[in-house]
Amino acid sequence: MGMGMSEIGIILLMIFGGSLGLPVGMPPGPEDPMMFKVAPENCVCYATWTGMAKLDPKANPTEAWMGQPEMVAMSDKLRAAWRGSIETKAKAIRDPATAAFTRFMLELADVAISSPTAIWVTDFAIKDDAPVIDGAALISLGDETDRIEAALENFSVELAKIDSKKFGIEAVEVEGQPAYRLILPENASEVYLALRGKYFAISFGKQSLIDIAKNSQTDAPKWLTDFRSELAVERFASMSYVNTKLAIEMFPVEEEPDLKWFLDMTNKLYGDDLQSMAWVSGVDSLGFLNRVSLRTAEKPSGILSVIDRGPIPREWISDIPTDSIVAVATRLSGNEILRMVKEIASDAGSEEEMKEVFAQFQAVTGMSLEDEFLETLGDFIYLYYKYDAEKPFNGIMASIRIEDEMSFPAIYEQLNKGIEKLLEDQGMPGLKKQTIADQEIISGGDGAMGMVSWALVENQWLFGYEAPDIARHLRGPAEGKRLSEQTTVEMLYKFGEEQKFGGPIAVAHLNLKSLMEIVWPFIGMFQDNDQRIEKDFDFTWGDVPKLDVLTKGMQPSMTAVYRTPTGFQMLMRQTYPGSSPIVTIAGIGTLAAPYGAAEYESAQVIKSMNNAKQLALAALNYESAFAKFPAAYSQDADGKRLLSWRVHLLPFMEENELYEQFHLDEPWDSEHNKALIEKMPDVFKNSNVETPAGKTTFLAVMGEDRVFTGPAKAGDASSKRRLADIHDGTSNTALIVEVSAEHAVTWTQPEDFSGDGKSLLEKTKGIRAGDEMMLIMTDGSVHVIPPQDAEMMENLLKINDGNLVDIP
Fold first, then answer.
1. Gap between the Cα atoms of 486 and 481, Å rounded
2. Could you write out the three-class secondary structure of 56-87?
3. Whole-prediction pTM value?
4. Which residues pair with 775 in a beta bridge?
5. Separation of alpha carbons 239 and 225, rounded Å
6. Pairing state of beta strands 199-204 and 235-242?
7. What is the DSSP letter of 373?
8. Distances (CA, A) of 627 to 224, 630, 647, 662, 751
9. Which residue in 13, 247, 287, 647 could disulfide with 643, CB within 3.0 to 4.6 Å?
10. pLDDT for 521-578, tens place per residue?
């Protein structure tokens, strides 16, 4: 069975994903202070990473893991596959300038992913349904400067040979220095590229490029230096930052109802609690670490209020075994959760449904959910999972700590009676009670996925799958196998004390090694050592190292969350490298940049081909409805031409509202109809040809021996041509042609192509590389082909000359 992209993607994510993303800047190279200097004072989001240093397997467990020969070989193969895929795409590009630009972007991305790089956004808005972004990226080229200069020079030479505006990139000057301006389709932002000494800048907007030079002469902004100081690491690898409050304010929520609803819910969850956040990653002698800081309101009122509790005493996690696959322990408030749920339900108009839930709880248990039940529960819970191959669901255990040990036993008894009565009323099996090692354990469910068991043991309310699972938990982990005894946990508590935070308010444990050992056999069922991710991407399952290599020296990941004077902090330690969300997004975007350049040409062609195909299908639908093709133009009783066939196809392109605005008995340039020219539908646009507003380069093939003819009679929008009249076959007869910008016509104007084959070749010159032309055939097919001889073109234009043509 074949191995596809999704399966290999899962493996690579597990290997390289770390806890939070793509490990760019690992292992860390030397920091470049310029990456911090250029960061703006008013910043919505920011990400930076260092260059990658040479691996030193003796430095720490993370580099030892990355430095295994098999891991190095896989990394090299992935990088080569990425380069090879883009180079293959570049070779297929017909236009030399596009190909040169693709190769330049490939070289730039290759340098950026392994060199000091910073990316930031200062503003975001929507203008005329297009995104407007202010921001920039700066890449330190270092020893790779000559390589990038050479690639840029090669692109410049090719760009000078063509109409740069048509291509979408033009050479300009900014502040007296050379740069390139990108004209992005469907994007209101101007993008500038500029080489500045040993740095390469990419900016959204001219001002952002100017600001890079200005900021390079200043110190790093205070927000950045504050977070760097707060989240200090021995060897810095990456950092990302989000000003959440500013980011939310920038979204144009009034124009986007769905977004407004989402942000309203977000505001309900977070309120003004979360003001900004930052992630810093790096390594020290113990391996990879990630530190996160959330700056919040002094007293959170949203979702963060749920975990705004005291530290977890270390002995409270002594019941959790170290051989758990995953374990989470946290302080949280049940009443705070309920308060938020009620507020959200009220805003969503579900207040009555919530009241019904409370009433049903009271009817079943005989007690109030808020005032009696939740008041007796504590604010500490933990959950862990131990895998058992024979009973994979049995390893889940959870515990809720009881606050009121005196009152809760009676409530517990009352709750069980209520559940028993509910099951009885619904005709379901009752609760099963067992005594194991002098402990009563209650079970409910049908023994399938719905089974659950519970027990009240001193100050803990325990939950498991079956009664023996709870009994096993009560025996407790063996000496040295308790999570609380682990050195990594001791370090987490010690860190909190050193930072004067106190103990953690939440702890998480993930044994990735054990998890991979469990899922690996299942993934292996779908493997195919020789199948590539995609045709041009030379990487297969066989290039992924064996499981013993992937898990060698891998220690469990440990994460702790602390309450701090300014908000919350997280510390995570693990063997395998990771990163942060924004650095991951930025890194993936960097890697994808050459793909975007390589696909630019084909995307433009495909867009135009899709528009052309819609025109052909509309004409065929017209013929199906009226048993005749539309006339090339309509005319009045005096034989005066009125409106083009393009107008009369509007109802067949979901443009009936526009069609009804036309005065069909008036010419295209009448005072009324002339005002509708600016409303030209996008389907008549050609992304390969730049034309004035209201003009199209899609012309009908018109003539007595062509598909389009004049109207059958005055006042009729249909011609005399039927589908059955096309004796040469619809796949051999041109319906519509694409002409160059100088031959474009106003879309409502009754003007089309009526020339011969030689004339068509002249009118299609210069549209794309090699003078390739687009032909839209009467069967609805669309072809982009090199120029042919005039005789062949003539044969394609006629409907019944008997000369069939092989279209390249």
1. 8
2. CCCCCHHHHHHCCHHHHHHHHHHHHHHHHHHH
3. 0.75
4. 737, 783
5. 11
6. unpaired
7. I
8. 70, 10, 18, 24, 24
9. 647
10. 776 666 666 666 667 788 888 888 899 999 999 999 999 999 999 889 999 999 988 8
